[in-house]
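Risk register update: the risk of archive-format incompatibility is retired. Evidence:
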Amino acid sequence: MIHPLLTEIGYREPLPSLSTRKIPMRSRTSCRGFVPVWLASEQWWRRVVFESQLELMFIQLILSQGNVYDIWEQPPAVRYVKENGKSAQHYFDFLITWMDGSKTAWAVKPFELVQRREFDQEIALIASQTPKSFADEVRLFTDAGFQRYDAVNAARFQQFSKSPDPAADDAVAAQTSVLEGSTTIARIVEQTGMSGRAYRAVVRAVFRGDLRQIKGGLIDYPTLVKRGVAQC
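Archived output:
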């Protein structure tokens, strides 16, 4: 396996965050930090900061889709007019640029907060005044919109993708190519003889589409999988 930050001329740091709003790293009420993310726009890693565990899960889930070109946390504020006629500004949590060039501005908020503050109505008002030059669409992401095991699977995929392991990928691909019907991940791992390396390769294969889960849930050794169709 190759260390993700090693180049032909040695170790190279991830690029700094592009956040336009300074995020305090210490908080008594929320999980804060940064995660190194490989971006097609940079062809390298960049630090992406987050202000909560929900934001971290959003980052991992959105990147696992495989069509993210760039991710910008806390992009420049968007100005809008409130219902009372007063001017205000809003910092979206993330601005995602997709591989096709389109952009989506995301507000990431706990569902309980959205209900209590009627934030869905506020973000709809902001969306109606967000210029197309900033984003093609505005979306709201809450913890009610996904299963927790999906976030765990995405986190594992991101972690397992940081260090390429072509030998393990090839070994799993060889087992996948002759797979008929369904089998467990444990069985594929056993047949490769590569233990944990093969398990990590299986997770990568599931997210690529080479393997497909029979039903939703945590991608683990007892999980049933079958051959899928890789997405280009």
